[in-house]
Amino acid sequence: MARTLQRLGREPLVSDGGMGSLLQTAVVRARCAEEANLIAPEQVVALHVAFIRAGADLIQTNTYGANPVKLAAHKLDDRFEAVNQAGVKLAREAREVAGRDVLVAGSIGPLGVAAGELAPDAMAAAFAGQAAALEGRGVDLFVLETFTALEELLAAARAVRSVTDLPLIVQVTVGDDAETVAGLAARAVPAAVAGFDPIAVGEVAGRRVAFLPRHGRDHRFPPHKIPYRANMWALRSLGVRRVLAPTAVGSLTPSFGPGTLVIPDQLVDRTRMREQTYFDEGACHVPFADPYCPTVRSAAIMAARESGWVPAGSGTLVVIEGPRFSTRAESLWFAAQGWTLVGMTGHPEAVLARELALCYTPLALVTDTDAGVDEGEGVTQADVFEVFAANISRLRDLVAKIIAELPADREDDLCAHALDGITLPFDLP
Ligand SMILES: [Zn+2]
Fold first, then answer.
1. For the purposes of burial, counting CB atoms within 10 Å of the CB of 425, is it exposed (0-12), middle (13-18) or buried (19 or more)?
2. 415 C-alpha to ligand 1 centroid (Å)
3. CATH number among 3.30.2310.20, 3.10.180.10, 3.40.50.1580, 3.30.70.260, domain 242-417
4. Is residue 412 within a helix (H) or strand (E), and if so which, with residue range?
5. Helix, strand, coil % in the chain, rounded to nearest 5
6. CA of 226 to the centre of ligand 1 (A)
7. Which range (9-18, 146-155, 194-203, 388-397) has the least confidence?
8. What DSSP string runs through 351-364?
9. What pLDDT, on the 0 to 100 scale, is given for residue 75?
């Protein structure tokens, strides 16, 4: 997985395409393009090799229509395993023949039935079966190819995820109006599938963006179990240099009510059990007096103002270990120190980002008033989720706007120079 993601982070990858149509013309006796894997393997390999020689960095297995439903229509259902396994084998053979280290993607296409014609369980089983057959033969990643209906796309993504954690490329076919024939808008796809992968990579406002849900797929990591070091390392490895970190926080001051957006400028660490450095040997001490990126903070404040969501332009975020909320006494004590926000995830994210010379900027959304503050009655999870849900689309729009307005380079940025003069115990990714 690392290999594929690193390559995607470094450069655009050129893929092949249209294997099926080409083979259908080339192998006229095949009942469908995928049968060529069994009856004309040398032609499949030759086509793959031609694509590699033409510059493809990624080739897709000739298995687009090799799901049990489509194969049954061609009376090839008993050859399901064989067709898929041969698809992978031939692509890998072509890679050997061409002598270039291209990525082999397991291709999965739609089932070819109308919406509602198949029960959701049958749909899931068909996709999962194909994914398992492809993965067993050693693909590097998966491509869900030319889908048009969101429901089917999600069923396929879920099914692939039920058998493998390999990277997943999701593709939809759209018309001039940027919508599929089933009315699915291309721009709605990234958000719809973001939760299926540890990191989704895409483009926002012409810039390459990686989206990493810090709590993992299905929100599996509570705040104290989040793999903070792996997360920041993965982002840096993908080529990310600026991190925008939306986070739900409690307010320690009556002036920040629920729904307030705060771009904090200071941080207090009250966590206890989290690994908070990459530098476990040598003398490496990064400056951290100003924990957040001044450049991105200004851009974020400006973008929020322009969007009509006037933010608090400063604040001190105290990060607690959690997952429990604060006691009344803790909360009063934090407030008495002049700290204004309390959260559970802002640390060690910020310092790890600094250690990797990344810009890091929290976008803190106040979801509740902490115990003991003003009339605060103590926080419940329901309060937090309610306010977060009410503001999520606003926050998403704001992130897109900030991305669009970030300065092009970060040469003068203190974060970019955080490691100047420090001898690191390892090479940065
Ligand atoms: Zn910066």
1. exposed
2. 4
3. 3.40.50.1580
4. none
5. 40, 15, 40
6. 23
7. 194-203
8. HHHHHTT-EEEEEE
9. 95
Kindly state the tokens that stand for 426: 């390892």
- Structure pTM? 0.64
pLDDT tens sequence across 89-121: 999 999 999 999 999 999 999 999 887 788 888
CATH topology for 2-197?
TIM Barrel (3.20.20)
CA distances from 225 to 88, 220, 345 (A): 37, 9, 10
Point out the residues that are catalytic: 368, 370
At residue 122, the 3 state secondary structure works out as: helix
Please answer whether residues 67 and 130 qualify as being in contact, where contact means their C-beta atoms are separated by less than 8 angstroms: yes
Among 51-65, 278-292, 407-421, the range with the most confident prediction by mean pLDDT is 51-65
Q: Which token pair is 266?
A: 């200071």
The ranges assigned to domains in the chain are 2-197, 242-417
Band of the pLDDT at 378, cuts 50, 70, 90? low
Q: What would the two tokens of residue 292 be?
A: 């957040």
CA 293 / ligand 1 centre spacing (Å): 4
Alpha carbons 388 and 371: distance in angstroms, whole number: 18
Q: Rounded to the nearest whole angstrom, what is the distance from the C-alpha of residue 414 to the centroid of ligand 1?
A: 6
Domains 2-197 and 242-417 share a fold: no
Question: Which two structure tokens, joined as six digits, stand for 66?
Answer: 């090799």
- The C-alpha atoms of residue 251 and residue 262 are separated, in whole angstroms, by 10
Output the CA 23–ligand 1 centroid distance in Å: 51
